[in-house]
Specification:
With 406 residues, the chain is an alpha/beta fold. The chain has 2 domains: 152 residues, Lyase, Ornithine Decarboxylase, Chain A, domain 1, CATH 2.40.37; 170 residues, Alanine racemase (TIM Barrel), CATH 3.20.20.10. The protein is 31% helix and 24% strand. It has 12 helices and 20 strands. Strands 3, 13, 14, 15, 16, 17, 18, 19 and 20 form a 9-stranded mixed sheet that branches. Helix 2 packs parallel to helix 9, helix 5 packs across helix 6 and helix 8 runs parallel beside helix 9. The chain is globular and about 70 Å long. Bound molecules: pyridoxal-5'-phosphate and lysine (LYS).
């Protein structure tokens, strides 16, 4: 029995668009966004979709039409949001290394706020704003020193991480910002990490920020908004993911009675489970110690398993296909780390179609051309309609920029 994305068979999509292929369900994107809106309806937050999770223009456009704002981390991401029709006034610009050109671009666009991560960055933004005769809206990203209990590569709220301004330096930094002629203090923010499966660090970070908000208020610095960073984790395997309503309730209890607007920057939980990577089995190879299912997707298409030993559920597109073997599911790239899964029970023969689940976040957006492989196409399914939203790259696309130097 073949499996479906909404009303379209994966086998049809693979034949029509080729593999590897990213497939997204529009319904799943909408439902995930609405789940945040509903959970937090008591505080009417500005939900700023974290573009890095999936920067496809059509996905940005879809979220924009749902009313989303955007968390961006480069001039390129800001350009994408603007190109897709996103409102500049709903763009937040995060990141530890904003260049002069990126700051000028963001100021010209008229974004909502810069999330500033250091004193030198404050100086740089002030200088660029002065040269342009503008006032830059800023918020300070505070590093609350909270352990998010996630993979160390995506934990961002500890003292040892490069992100944010230390709690101990925060008041001084706000006073400094208040004295700069071309900055306007708007808010406070934090982001402690991604794929969070425990609510308590998120709540603790919010509490720490609110203590700081009170201290600043006593010093005459009033903030308009608090931005709590990324969203909750998603189920890849069998993780006990946090309940969004519980998170919302805890935050809303903490914010009750305060005149602070709420901003959220979820990425993974808006797109992760809306996406599947389709890949075709090239060969099944019996090694001396292991079986290998060699597929046409690789670490350049989906880097998460190689980079974080991340788990993605993989199954044959034909449900209940037998027999299963124990195998590593690997790509064609010349690296031993090029695997999508290790030691999995899977039914797979050459020519079979496999579904790599939960690939909507940090999949296509982290893809590369390593081994001079062409990036996969992406399609969006809505009911029984399917739309190509990124064409498969050709070799000419990949080589175009360099060819002129030959
Ligand atoms: C500053 C910032 N905001 C938001 C996000 C999105 O986080 P998540 O995808 O876990 O919701 C990230 C990524 O971790 C981030 O670095
Ligand atoms: N790329 C990571 C998440 C990074 C979050 C960015 N701050 C992942 O796939 O899990």
């Amino acid at each position: 029995m073949t499996q479906f994305c909404e009303n379209i068979a994966y086998s049809y999509l693979a034949e029509h668009f080729g593999t590897p292929l990213y497939v997204y369900s529009e319904n799943a994107l909408t439902n995930a966004f609405r789940a945040y809106e509903m959970a937090f309806s008591g505080s009417q937050p500005l939900i700023c979709y974290a573009v890095k999770a999936n920067s496809n223009l059509s996905i940005i456009k879809h979220f924009s039409e749902l009313g989303s704002g955007f968390d961006t981390v480069s001039g390129g991401e800001i350009a994408r949001v603007l190109a897709a029709g996103g409102a500049a006034k709903k763009i937040i610009f995060s990141g530890v290394g904003k260049s002069v050109a990126e700051i000028a671009f963001a100021l010209n666009a008229g974004i909502k706020c810069f999330n500033v991560e250091s004193l030198p960055e404050l100086d740089r933004i002030n200088q660029v704003a002065e040269q342009m005769g503008k006032i830059a809206p800023i918020s300070l990203r505070i590093n609350p020193d909270v352990d998010a209990k996630t993979h160390p590569y995506i934990s961002t709220g500890l003292k040892a991480n490069k992100f944010g301004i230390a709690m101990s330096q925060a008041e001084q930094a706000y006073q400094y910002a208040a004295n700069q002629s071309h900055l306007k203090i708007m808010g406070i923010d934090c982001h402690i990490g991604s794929q969070l499966i425990d609510l308590s660090p998120l709540v603790e970070a919010c509490q720490r920020l609110l203590m700081l908000v009170d201290k600043l208020s006593a010093q005459g610095i009033e903030l308009e908004h608090i931005d709590l960073g990324g969203g909750v984790g998603i189920v890849y395997h069998n993780e006990p993911i946090p309940n969004l309503n519980e998170y919302a309730q805890a935050v809303q209890n903490l914010l009750a009675g305060r005149k602070l607007d709420l901003v959220l920057e979820p990425g993974r939980s808006l797109v992760g489970n809306a996406g599947t990577l389709l890949t075709r089995v090239e060969f099944v190879k019996q090694g001396e110690e292991k079986n290998f299912v060699i597929v046409d997707a690789a670490m350049n298409d989906l880097m998460r398993p190689a980079l974080y030993q991340a788990y993605h559920h993989i199954e044959n597109a034909e449900k209940n296909k037998q027999p299963e073997i124990l195998a590593d599911i690997v790509g064609p790239i010349c690296e031993t780390g090029d695997f999508l899964a290790q030691n999995r029970q899977i039914a797979a023969e050459a020519g079979d179609l496999l579904l790599v689940h939960s690939a909507g976040a940090y999949g296509a957006s982290m893809a590369s051309n390593y081994n001079t492989r062409c990036r996969a196409a992406e399609v969006l399914v809505s009911g029984d309609k399917v739309r190509e939203i990124r064409q498969r790259e050709t070799l000419e696309d990949v080589m175009r920029l360099e060819m002129k130097f030959l």
